[in-house]
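Escalated from tier 1: pyridoxal-5'-phosphate holo job.
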Amino acid sequence: MTDFDDTLPAPDEFDIAPVRLTVDLGALADNWRDMVRRSGKARAAAVVKADAYGLGLEDCGTALYEAGARDFFVAVVQEGVTLRTYAPDARIFVLSGIWPGQESLFFEHDLVPVIASEEQLAFWMSLLAEGGDHPCALHVDTGFNRLGLPFADALALAKDVSRPASFSPVLVLSHLHSGDTPSSPLNKAQLDAFQEVSAAFDGIETSLSASAGIFLGPEYHFDLTRPGIALYGGESVNGMQPLRPVAKAEARILQIREAAAGSTVSYGATHQLSRRSRLAVVSVGYADGYLRALSGSGVPLRAGGTSGAYGYIDGHRVPIIGRVTMDLTIFDVTDVPERAVRAGDYIQLFGPDMPLAEVARAAGTIGYEMLTSLGLRYERRYIYPEE
Ligand SMILES: *Cc1c(COP(=O)(O)O)cnc(C)c1O
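Tier 2 regenerated the structure:
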């Protein structure tokens, strides 16, 4: 007797999604372990701001925690509150610091504000005066001019004997602005400045390097490193091979069109076909973070000098033709055998076969922006290490 079920199986959303994203959590965990190893004597934190660089805080945070990460950095307090669920006993640092009204979020969820301005420091001191003794971290500016106490003020604070005893930062950090360019002499200037800060705050843990800084050498490691983009398979040092790819973005081909030589493609008719062509009309556009600057032509603001991005299908790199539109992008698949590319197939936008950094460069941007721009339409699939 055969056992049969007369209901049709529900289609797996992933198999029919217009755009889909596969996140390899095993690769993410491997990349973190790799950064731990490269951090030498320092511990490695995990930076998971902006929804883990667009790849999903819940799944990525959990995978990093399970891999052993116990220090995390987020940008804003709400990210810390979310992460606390998945990283119960980790230290969670909030890089943008604390505002009046956020005290209870920080205290209830045991989050560590990174004090990053004179105003925040004054506010923090006023909280301590009320009798709190919650831990904080200090960000000291060594040349970025973004966040951080001014260098001289930080040195003065370190030497200030009148500061309350309950003011006891658990970490002093700074951030390199040119870590991605190892030849820049400005890295050494920031290192020298930070060494002075580190000496002034004797006995307190210190942290200087994000992903790129880790590659600058052991003197840049201090007590704690803060890798972000490298964990997610992005390029941290310009031109250097990234670690394992973590994200694969794909979009579905809606139709294959035959188009005559001399006809034009997409808005503005900025691309005229020089030959009879087969075009794949693909279900992804700038609303999905597939940036308009990736267009094959017709983007006057792009300065880079490249002619647009490529997708990947069945061993072939296929160029974008004309402008990327909100929901649709057109690729030239004339050189791909007809049987290898059909309506319903998926084109890889970036991933193991189409490097994220290369796609980003074609748009005149960086992998960070591509990942954090992924829109809401992606159907996501997470691959767990044991699968
Ligand atoms: C974003 C950020 C990081 C992580 O940087 P990556 O280049 O992604 O490794 C580390 N520290 C600070 C202060 C940051 O803002």
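The mean pLDDT is 94.
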